[in-house]
Amino acid sequence: MKPDDDTCWAAVRDRDRAFDGRFFYGVLSTGVYCRPSCASRTPLRRNLRFYAVAADAERDGLRPCKRCKPLARTADEATIRTVRELCRYIQQHSDQNPGLEQLSRRAHLSPSHLQRRFKAVLGVSPKDFVESCRLDALKRKLRDGRSVAAATYDAGFGSSSRVYERAAHRLGMTPRQYRAGGRGVDISWALSETPLGLLMIGASDRGLCFVQFGASESELRGQLQAEFPQAAITPMPANARDQFAQWMQALSRHLSGRQVALDLPLDLRGTAFQMKVWNYLLKIPYGALRSYSEVAQAIGAPRAVRAVASACAANRVGLVVPCHRVIRGDGGLGGYRWGLERKRSLIDLERSVRTAGA
Ligand SMILES: [Zn+2]
User: Fold this and answer.
1) Where does the record place the catalytic residues (predicted)?
2) What is the chain's Cα-based Rg?
3) Which CATH number is correct for 77-179, 3.50.50.60, 3.20.20.210, 2.40.400.10, 1.10.10.60?
């Protein structure tokens, strides 16, 4: 059993060898996964995910760290490579539900060898891995707004009743609940008038998950609800007033050019790719600009320019995650979720503050 997240986090900070083999941690900003004792610099907690088995990290698209080699004790390098290639293949063909025979032909191994080695390297059987990939595909389709019936069909499941059984068991909820925004999170919100219009901030107990402009309170509340349909959303409670006031103050100082750095706690929720993009945006200095393709290059996905633009557009935490610092390669502004006029104002403001300070 994987220890709980706080225990895992403590083990990572201490590089505690006693936890090697009990879990792996993935670093979403770099795309690698490690053993707890890895000697690399300790990542920020918000970029970490903890995995019971290597298979889960592989399914999230992460690769084994070259420094701590988390799979090295499980098999020789050639076997690890074969197994990982098979993972990619399964992920791309999970809708066809590939069986052990087919996979072993691909890997040039006998079925029993494949079975044993796959499990030794990744901690789960090939069949379990295929099953998890099919559930991942189903989840993705549900999140993208496909109906339960269509998503079930696309993901290669025969009848939807079986999906319900399995998905409810594995996801801890039914596909319909998942589509409805996942398990409940408590989110509080507050509003403030700023030089760029009405601003709403929303926060969970982990940090800011929503910073957006809008025309009215009701519009903004609607947006917040749409982002987190399943969350319990309430106005800021009295005991959080000081905290919210501090955040708002920082944002309004930022918007008037009096505070350059915005180091606020964040609760970012997204796919591994979105997290990579958003984490990169956090590193673009105040007053600097990048093109969508520069961002794609920088995160190691040079051809994913469109996906980068979509991840910027899906940013829920404006200003703090500065998607306004990304523009088109030809100098055009590109898009901005809260209007191009606001994007232009932010870019101009940052440029003038930087020039004045230089
Ligand atoms: Zn490592």
Assistant:
1) 34, 323
2) 22
3) 1.10.10.60
